[in-house]
Write a structure and sequence with these properties.
single chain, alpha+beta, Aminopeptidase, ten-stranded mixed sheet, four-stranded antiparallel sheet, 11 helices
Length: about 300
């Protein structure tokens, strides 16, 4: 039986236990992730937390709605066993009475009447092979850029702070990306601090000779999966091809382990080409959308 749980009704121990039974699960649905990126999240659960469907809920003008927040790629149906697509369709049908607007990215191609589905794309690289074979599978331009980066004295460090990484992004990319409000960055900062202090993640970077952060990357490391959640770079780092150097370093460190490097997506062509250049496989997730808001509120969305 599916149940709808408010935020304070969710048993986080049983929630995370279910996720930990799911092979190579993405971190986005873990309670510690949702608590920081989507405060007040709700959930659908089946039976004794056998299956989970997290709900990043919001409230505006007295109306409850679902929307995927920034710095969270996808959610959907999570279970250790069973037909995830069919179960996702059942959960989505169940939640129709709770939220008038649904705008979620999910991992299942769930066809439910009244909803539209739009594909979005990610890249993942499974590191079963030794580094030499992984290197061979890089695209020619990728290998060339790594070799250019190696000509410069760039030391990869793990001492950048969350504040430094976010400041670098805001100075170089935020306006172009349309992310200028403070609140998403405060939530991301809280997530980074939690992960780096609890062994769930690292911040890798390269500094200038004077110690200024040129490029950095926040990765979350869970069982079977390393997620490249957030990157930031300066104009100088593009000249030095620093991003290629650091990602190659990460891949080399996990080569032969079976770990999955999750590039955390983008459907933006230039970013997709960059991610694909490391030899990863294209994967699909879905934007699920339904708007039953009353007129004229519907026009505001």
């Amino acid at each position: 039986m599916i149940r709808h749980l408010k935020h304070n009704e969710i048993d986080r121990g049983r929630w995370d236990a279910c996720l930990n039974e799911t092979p190579a699960v993405k971190p986005y649905a873990m309670s510690w992730y949702l608590d920081r990126i989507s405060p007040g999240w709700e959930a659908l659960v089946e039976d004794d937390y056998h299956a989970l469907f997290p709900l990043p809920c919001h409230r505006k003008l007295g109306i409850s709605y679902l929307a995927t927040p920034l710095f969270l790629q996808q959610l959907g149906l999570f279970t250790a066993e069973g037909d995830r697509k069919r179960m996702a369709e059942e959960f989505i049908s169940f939640m129709q009475g709770f939220y008038m607007l649904v705008d979620l990215c999910i991992g299942q191609e769930a066809a439910v009447p009244g909803y539209t589905l739009t594909p979005r794309y990610n890249y993942e690289l499974k590191l079963d092979d030794p580094y030499e074979k992984l290197w061979f599978n890089y695209m020619t331009d990728c290998r060339r850029n790594i070799n250019i980066a190696r000509r410069y004295p760039q030391e990869i460090v793990e001492n950048p702070t969350p504040e430094e990484l976010i400041a670098l992004f805001r100075a170089n990319t935020a306006r172009r990306a349309g992310v200028t409000r403070n609140s998403p960055y405060l939530r991301l900062q809280a997530l980074m601090k939690h992960c780096t202090s609890s062994g769930l993640g690292r911040i890798l970077g390269v500094r200038s000779p004077r110690g200024k952060l040129l490029w950095g990357m926040f990765v979350i490391e869970t069982a079977g999966r390393t997620t490249m959640l957030f990157t930031a770079g300066s104009r100088k780092s593009r000249e030095l091809r620093t991003s290629y150097l650091v990602i190659d370093h990460l891949i080399r460190s996990y080569a032969g382990t079976g770990q999955i490097i999750d590039f955390a997506g983008s459907s933006i062509p230039s970013i997709a080409i960059f991610m694909r250049s490391f030899g990863g496989d294209k994967t699909t997730y879905w934007r699920l959308y339904r708007n039953n808001l009353p007129w004229p509120v519907k026009l505001l969305k």
